[in-house]
Write a structure and sequence with these properties.
The chain is an alpha+beta fold. Helices cover 26% and strands 35% of the residues. The chain is built from nine helices and 21 strands. The chain is globular, with a radius of gyration of 24 Å. It starts with a strand and ends with a strand.
Length: 344
């Protein structure tokens, strides 16, 4: 199912939650809505679901105008952060709930419902647990049940609001892979809200980044990370050293930090350099000279943080083999592989 969001605005009293949002979501796409708290991402998801109606603008499902249609008419599957499972029902009954409550000819037969439940239990890898109750499951298993229940009704669109927010880091990573696998197996157009950048960049086909009720950028994960459209995206997506300085004649400067700023007008500017874009080089050959203060191993890289001579603090992520011998107080000559400069 394709979804077209056209100039949608939503206000709550005097508070503008969405400001002229337009977005095209392709059939079968897995899209992440990413942004800080209060950016409008959950409001947008609820407007797409039919749980809220826009103050202005339109929502199309395919070629149908669904702007003021309810969630049932839109056939959406919704997965919440807190599972929202029925504690008094077994796993199988929870999954079957959306089918059991249908009326008349729309309600499948018992055998068909049972077969659908078994199919979904296999899909979410909970085979044999249909007779258990939610209290007998782990948090990750309960979230899988919630996902299976949402899929049971063959939704046109699957919507997830911070689906892994209540889980610990290890379980979150595991369920990300499961959600991707399930999405690929079902082909259902899926939209999920998250404030976790790693989650969005790892899982989604595309990421829509929201800020103050507006979309700052939409693109593939590598696009929004490696080619940010503006200062907000550069600072929000991924890690970055941030410098507030000045551009003159195509160069950004702040103390002893100087960076290329081709195409940026002269005047106040903000620059970003990602830690992994800093590379150790020979003495006197670098763009920056840093005195190492804090050193922390992190997997295959060494995280090194310290000041330049003019006091600008820099964090670098250096391959551990290249950083052999680096110690507190050591001089690091760093070459900048890539930087981002935007006028302010």
């Amino acid at each position: 199912m394709t979804i077209s969001i056209r100039s949608v605005e939503k206000t709550f009293g005097r508070y503008p939650a969405l400001n002229g949002v337009s977005l095209e979501i392709a059939d079968g796409e897995l899209l992440a809505l990413l942004g800080p708290s209060g950016s409008g991402k959950t409001t947008l998801l609820r407007v797409i679901a039919g749980l809220e109606f826009p103050s202005s603008g339109q929502i199309f499902y395919g070629d149908q105008d669904m702007t003021f249609a309810g969630a049932a008419e839109r056939r959406v599957g919704f997965v919440f952060q807190q599972y929202a499972l029925f504690r008094h029902m077994t796993v199988a009954k929870n999954i079957a709930f959306g089918l059991d409550v249908r009326k008349g000819a729309a309600k499948p037969g018992k055998a068909e419902i049972a077969a659908r439940v078994e199919e979904l239990l296999r899909l979410v890898e909970l085979d044999g647990l249909g007779k258990r109750y939610p209290a007998q499951l782990s948090g990750g298993q309960r979230q899988r049940v919630a996902l299976a229940r949402a899929l049971a009704v063959n939704p046109s669109v699957l919507l997830l609001d911070e689906p892994f927010g209540a889980l610990d880091a290890t379980v979150r990573k595991s369920l990300r892979k499961e959600l991707r696998r399930i999405h690929d197996a079902t082909g259902v157009t899926t939209i999920f809200v998250t404030h976790d950048q790693e989650e969005a960049l790892e899982l989604a086909d595309r990421v829509a980044i929201l800020n103050q009720g507006a979309i700052e950028q939409v693109g593939a994960p590598n696009e929004v990370h490696d080619d940010p459209a503006g200062a907000f995206v550069a600072g929000f997506v991924g890690e970055a050293n941030r410098f507030e300085g000045h551009v003159e004649a195509g160069r950004f400067s702040l103390g002893d930090v100087t960076l290329p700023a081709k195409g940026v007008a002269d005047g106040p500017a903000v620059a970003f350099v990602r830690p992994h874009e800093l590379v150790m080089t020979q003495e006197g050959k670098g763009d920056l000279v840093v005195t190492a203060q804090h050193i922390a191993p992190q997997g295959a890289v060494l995280r090194v943080e310290g000041p330049t001579a003019s006091g600008q603090r820099i964090e670098a992520a250096i391959a551990r083999q290249a950083a052999a011998g680096v110690h507190p107080g050591a001089r690091l000559d760093l070459a900048v592989a890539r930087s981002y400069v935007f006028p302010v």
